[in-house]
Amino acid sequence: MQEKEVIISLKNVSKVFQGKKTIDNVSFDILKGETFVIMGCSGSGKSTLLRLMTGILRPDEGSIFIKGKDISKISHDELDEVRKTFGMCFQYSALLDSLTVEENVALPLKEHTKLADEIIRIIIKMKLSLVGLRGYENYYPSQISGGMRKRVGLARAIALDPDIVFYDEPTSGLDPVVGGVTDKLIKDLSQKLIITSVVVTHDMQSVFNIADKIIMVHKGEIVEFGTPEQIKNSSNPYIKQFINGSPVGPIDFFKEDIAIEEALGL
Amino acid sequence: MIVKLGKTILDLIKNIKEVFILFLNILYWIFFGPFKGKFIQLTSVFNQMIFVGIRSILIVFFVSMFTGIVLAMQSAYQLQKMGAVLYVATLVAVSLCRELGPVLTALVVAGRSGSAIAAELGTMKVSEQIEALETMAINPVRFLAAPRFLALFFMLPCLTILGNISGIFGGFLVGTGSLNINPDLYMQTTFKYLALKDIYTGLIKSFIFGMIIALIGCYEGLNTKGGSEGVGKATTRSVVISFVLIILADCIVTTIFYFSKL
Lengths: 266, 262
Prior knowledge:
The structure holds two protein chains of two kinds. By secondary structure, chain A is α/β, with parallel strands linked by helices. Helix content of chain A is about 35%, strand content about 25%. Chain A contains ten helices and ten strands. In chain A, strands 6-7-8-3-9-10 form a six-stranded mixed beta sheet, with helices on both faces. Chain A has a four-stranded antiparallel beta sheet with strand order 2-1-4-5, with helices on one face. Chain A is globular, with a radius of gyration of 18 Å. The two termini of chain A are about 35 Å apart. Chain B is mostly helical. Chain B is built from nine helices and no strands. In chain B, helix 4 packs antiparallel against helix 9. Chain B is elongated, with a radius of gyration of 21 Å. The interface of A and B includes residues 54 and 265 of A.
């Protein structure tokens, strides 16, 4: 373990929304090439963690290091340089409606590289065949299914050959087969291209399929940390309740005060 | 109540500040972005120009022409009493070019294109598309707001010229058709009293109105919160605020022109 370098590191990160601590003093390290899963209920703060790591939100306290750079303190231009080295796969794909599949995947390439159009077209073909969507270049996002849109989003995320890919609920809303295909895709990408994957999900089957390491977040705090084996055999009551999907336990659903930003997905 | 009033005023100041920052941001990307190798996409500007400009031609034409017709008839009603029906031509031309052309065109475009900009950007915001652009290190102001700003800035004066011409045409129809003014005489009277400054003061206004529509549409769109209801609110607000600001700006600019004898 020691020989692998740390690529993302959170140190004592806190984030306050409307006087309520959504993230409370969270620290963890993510190693290069591993698939790191953040799981938790809706409103637990896992999506906020993702937004902090992608620099959309800035922490109120603590530091977030990506490849050694503290993205909570650097300027906007420097943050953009860091952003070019990672891809983000959104829960609802977040493709630009006004552009075709091809143009969507081409967007980061056209914006950040000086490649000729023919080369960009070849790269797009490669990325689209990687996610099994060759032949859909000229469709608009509204003309393809939700699962396809998600995979186009993944193709866009890996267009610039990033070192890190963030996934926000990659399997939610997909049928089990496509979900399984997506899991395999994430695994393949991280193993073949040595991409570090950070996955936010509450799909337990997917978690055990892909994870190298898991943290469980509840009310902005980490309640458990470990490998899939350790999590499976954990005696932590939070984990037990989460895995079994039981309504009774320490995670009190009915008293949960869900942050409005979280509920609206902002 | 005082607390509420204070909060409203503070919100207003905050909004004005943010719109101003957006304005500076857009100017930065237009003038300084190219030096950093970050260009505004020309295809995007042209697409927006087609949307806000070319697609508005028909509605601007009809609104201005009917206004010209109404203006001619209303002024003929009064001028007939003084036996000065011929001056309908002058009155229509000057009031259209100086005032009604720019304002009416701006209101039409604010209702049509400003609202569409707010709705489009608002939908992009609530469906995480803006966030996606940011994580791809693509600045949304450069990518989305600046092309719309440029398109409106250049197309609104063009539409205003079209509006002026169609308004004069409307007046011409009434003048020659119903008031029995000789067509040649009508056009001569029109251009005899229509000075160049009447036209360019109107165009200066329309440049300002174009900026207002683009800024408010983009600001409301990029700051949309709360799903589809939020998009609806942003759209409504963009139209209401643009309308009020267009009239306000018109009042201020006209005052300046009036006292500087332009």
